Amino acid sequence: MIEITAEVVRQLIKAQFPKWKDLEIVPVEKSGHDNRTYRLGSEMTVRLPSHERYASAVEKELTWLPVFQPLLSLPIPVPLAQGEPTTEYPLPWSVNQWIEGDTVTHSNVLDINGFAEDLAGFLKELQAIDASHGIPSGIQNFHRGGNLAVYDQDTRSVIDKLSGQFDQKLLMEIWELALATRYQAAPLWLHGDVAAGNLLVRNGRLCGVIDFGTMGVGDPSCDLVMAWNFFDDASRDVFLRRMNFEQDTVNRARGWALWKALITYAWNEPSSEASEWGKHAIDVILREYKSL
């Protein structure tokens, strides 16, 4: 990871965008893992990849977010400028319009079923955008929208190590069901990381979607993981019904959610917030699957 500080950001702004050099620079509280984000004054953010593996997202967002923005009913980041690499910070970076809102939690959503409807509506709008010239899934977006089997070895390895903690046989059944089909329809646009940390709420309602770094075109199933990672039984049903995909896509989506939950549980310190989140998500997936 590259060490990024407010002073580094200040020097980048001063050297490349001197008209903004006197604006206050403050780190965003929930900055994320792939990128570091800083407030620039009251109306902008500076977004800097934390590692070279995330750097390709900068050009992707600068190219496509202006295309998406007028076609979506919710605010998304609007790129204002592209920063160039320097000796102090060797990757491309960007300046974007600030979006007002708080990171979604279960406590700041007024109506979870309404939130499920709103999120599904946004994703349907995104999927309706012409994807014929979009960016195919691959290493550049960690295979979001591609073949879930790329994570088969990691997933089986984690399941194999969970003896006595979860129903391994059932976990493997869920995983193999997810791998049993491939997406056959025309590629659709996908966000690639529809997670609580990338959704904003204002007055209890979904008010913005951020961090399109893993966007691409392909199988939209990976964008449905909130069904198990955030929603309860009733709102999961609302969300999946509104998305209106065939069962094979839902099975692959459950597989994406399971992979993420398993590696988050197993690859983080026991009892850490991340590990506990992974354990809870695994429990939800198992309980939902057994109820089918």
Helical content, roughly?
A: 25-40%
How widely separated are the two ends?
42 Å
Output the CATH topology of the largest domain: Aminoglycoside 3'-phosphotransferase, Chain: A, domain 2
Uncertain ranges = none
Overall pLDDT: 96
Indicate the overall shape. Answer: globular
Q: How would you classify the helix and strand content by structural class?
A: alpha+beta
Radius of gyration from CA coordinates:
19 Å
User: How many extended strands?
Assistant: 10
**What is the class of the largest domain in the CATH system?**
Alpha Beta
Number of helices: 9
Strand order, largest beta sheet = 1-2-3-5-4
Major β-sheet profile? 5 strands, antiparallel
The name of the CATH architecture of the largest domain is Alpha-Beta Complex
How much β-strand is present in the residues? 5-15%
Tally of structural domains: 2
